[in-house]
Amino acid sequence: MLTLNCTVSESGPIGPVTWVKGWGSGSQAIYEPKGSSPRVMRAVNESNRDFTIHITDVRLEDTGTYYCVKFSKGTFGAEVFKRGGGTEVLVHARPSKLAVSGPSRRAVPGQSVSFTCSARGFFPRDIQVQWLKNSVPVPAELTRITSELSNSSYNVSSTVQVTLHKNDVRSALTCQVQHNTLSAPLTRTYTLGQALRVPPSVSVVAAPPGAVEGNKTVNFTCRVQGFYPGAVNIAWLENGTEMNAGSTTQPTETSQGLFEQNSTVTVQAGEEKNGSSFTCRVVHEDQEPISRTGILRVAVPASEKIDNSFIGDSSA
After folding, report:
1. How many domains does the chain have?
2. Which Gene3D superfamilies match (predicted)?
3. Residue 197 and which of 38, 56, 226, 279 are 20 to 30 A apart at CA?
């Protein structure tokens, strides 16, 4: 509750006493004998000298300068007889909850990405914003403080640039705000993994390696490693034609927060498949496919050679 004190002399002229907020064309009546704001009441209702008022449920819009004004009854109505020197009221307000936003699309390692932290509705104007990445300070690129239309509160927006790295999947970017209305700083944390896309490395290996005998089986395994987020689509093609899906494991998470996944197809090594290509095609986060190929080598046995010099007529 806000209390505004005003006393008048008994020797003054006959006329009402009012309270106004502001002076001049933009003034606003706060208390009048015929009625006042619902949140305003007199401290002593029946007094002819004490015109102290209470304002309840104090709000940001109550910021301003208040005047106690004594009027006299003149020929042409009430005229200002005297007004007080004015009481300036400043309503302190806490910043709103912080909002931290990142890029609209994921970025790959090596890209510089912009992040913004904002808070609204605080007073007074002085405020401090600090950024930290994994508890290490990061300098802000731009911090702007703007006033509301009523000039009774302020908003802040701070921007920082961060270059992402492959090991930032679990890194934390924190915005920290200090203001004299706060007993402890406000904080909001953004996990950099939300803004990061790490493309996979893809390789195809054959087991057993090298050329194999006909009718043996060969396993081609596609190793998809070090990607984030942890969802990929894996397809196999034989000589450019999509084949039945292989046996694919579930993604597993590494200690760095990246993912790995394997897919295997089994091929019967017939002579007709010698030189065939088996391609693993991987699509991650709707990006262009990554393809790697293994070649099937089948060992063709040497044809039997018939030495005709040992074939003759044995008749006498």
Report:
1. 3
2. Immunoglobulins
3. 279
